[in-house]
Amino acid sequence: MRIIHIPRKAQPPGQFDGRKIEERRMVMFPDAPEGLLHSFSTLFYWSYAWGNEDGLIAEHPHRGFEIMSVVIEGTLEHYDSTSGTWTPLRAGDVQVMRAGTGLTHAERVSKGTRFFQIWFDPDLRNALTQPPQYRDFRADQFDVLDMDDMEARIIAGEGATVELQSQARVFELSYGPGEHAMEVDEDSVFAIFVLEGKIETDASFVKQDDFLLVSHAELLRFTTDRAGKVFIVEVPRVPAYATLAGSH
Questions:
Q1: Is the domain of 113 the same as that of 18?
Q2: CATH number reported for the structural domain that contains residue 114 in this entry
Q3: Is there a contact between 243 and 41 (Cβ–Cβ < 8 Å)?
Q4: Taking CA 144 as the corner, what is the angle to CA 77 and CA 95, rounded to the nearest 5 degrees?
Q5: Does pTM surpass 0.90?
Q6: Is residue 245 part of a domain?
Q7: pLDDT at 193
Q8: In what order do the strands lie in the sheet with 75-80?
Q9: Are 156 and 87 part of one and the same domain?
């Protein structure tokens, strides 16, 4: 098993609207400086952002990528250039934007809101020929699976509420104190953000807001002395199509 541990303090910062909105970036674009975790497989970018005050991420363009916004706490509004309307998203809600041939969008972030924005790398040969699309999903639309000593909220992937064009699965795990293990595919890479609590793995002591990258594993195994939650993006070690990340 291979583990890369990126603690909160090592995640590069960013900001919008005069620091009304701030972020930390776990997975960076390919042109980011050396020494940081760059795009890999079908995971192109991942940031964790929050609102210090009510703020605006101004209208900006996208093409090709499949971009997921996940609201952890608070309220986020997305401007949809395909309809010209603002759509509110609340805690647990998810939006998927297929940028396709091109669109512009903007985001209003209320004070106290926390959210992820995750960019996936689809097969651009197809994605760049398709019209743009927004889809919103409410928190109660997602299945929750009982896994004995854990619960899994299944967000995206084959057969899930959100079916992505990109090769990826997205889910949250909630658990109580104790030892936990889940069988996984050793041909996958698991990007893991600790949302609540802290965990101990074979190689690391991982605190809230820390990030792990786990590969070449048959088990995801960890121990904790308290209830907690992790957010996981699973992508293949070798995608079935050429990715933009892989071309750099």
A1: yes
A2: 2.60.120.10
A3: yes
A4: 20
A5: yes
A6: no
A7: 98
A8: 55-62, 103-109, 75-80, 85-90
A9: no
DSSP assignment of 80-133 equals ETTTTEEEEEETT-EEEEE-TT-EEEEEEE-TT-EEEEEEE---HHHHTTSPPE
pLDDT tens for residues 143-200?
A: 999 988 999 999 999 889 999 999 999 999 999 999 999 999 999 999 999 999 999 9
**Cβ distance 118 to 46 under 8 Å?**
yes
pLDDT in tens, 116-151: 999 999 999 999 999 999 999 999 999 999 988 999
Q: Domain check: are 148 and 134 in the same one?
A: no
The DSSP secondary-structure symbol of 217 reads -
Contacts of 35 (CB under 8 A, 6+ apart): none
Residues 222, 182: Cα–Cα separation, whole Å: 9
DSSP states of 19-67: TTEEEEEEEB-TTSPTTS-B-BTTEEEEEEEEESSSEEEEEEEE-S-EE
